[in-house]
Amino acid sequence: MNTQLPSAARAKEQAQLLRTKMAEDGSPIGHAKSLELVAHQHGFRDWNTMFAAIGNGGPKDWAIGDKVSGTYLSQPFTAHVATVSSIQPGWFRLELHLEEAVDVVTSKSFSNYRSRIRGVVGPKGHSVERTNDGKPHLQIDLW
Questions:
Q1: Pair type for strands 113-121 and 138-140
Q2: How far is it, in rounded angstroms, from Cα 63 to Cα 132?
Q3: Domain segments of the chain: what residues?
Q4: What is the model's pLDDT at position 60?
Q5: Is the pTM of this model over 0.70?
Q6: Helical axes 8-24 vs 47-54, angle rounded to 10°
Q7: How far is Cα 140 from Cα 22, in angstroms, rounded to an integer?
Q8: What distance in Å separates the CA atoms of residue 23 and residue 137, rounded to the nearest whole number?
Q9: Fewer CB within 10 Å, N side or C side of the chain?
Q10: What percent of the chain has pLDDT over 70?
């Protein structure tokens, strides 16, 4: 079984991407089936078992050099923690050095690539700040 689990939100995003890809390939599947397949990819017998293993992803102590993944302005990334400071119990200010720069602009007219990002994340691994569609600016998968 894979010991590095995505957050519940990230697993659901993976399921949605799988549904989209399967539909494009001419083999549409339902939401429940896509969740089950994501659970199987992570070594679980079903979605409920995986969801129970993920839990609420309580507070994590971050350390410089930790490898993390998640989304920044809805763009997936993997990164290493460059700096970390505790703000209050469960809340941390992080600076992340991305393995690959991400384009944080959705416009087709221009791009803005970032290789370092800063943000404050809480006990669930996401920032308070939200994009127009309600998603957190910064979401870190809690392992």
A1: unpaired
A2: 31
A3: 8-54, 67-140
A4: 61
A5: no
A6: 150
A7: 26
A8: 29
A9: N
A10: 90
Q: CA 34 to CA 67: how far, in whole Å?
A: 27
Q: Which residue has the tokens 């539909």?
A: 23
One-character DSSP codes across the chain? --S-PPPHHHHHHHHHHHHHHHHHTT----HHHHHHHHHHHTT-SSHHHHHHHHTT-------TT-EEEEEETTEEEEEEEEEEEEEETTEEEEEEEEEEEEE----SS---EEEEEEEEE-TTSB-S-B-TTS-BSEEE---
| Cα separation, 115 vs 61, whole angstroms | 23
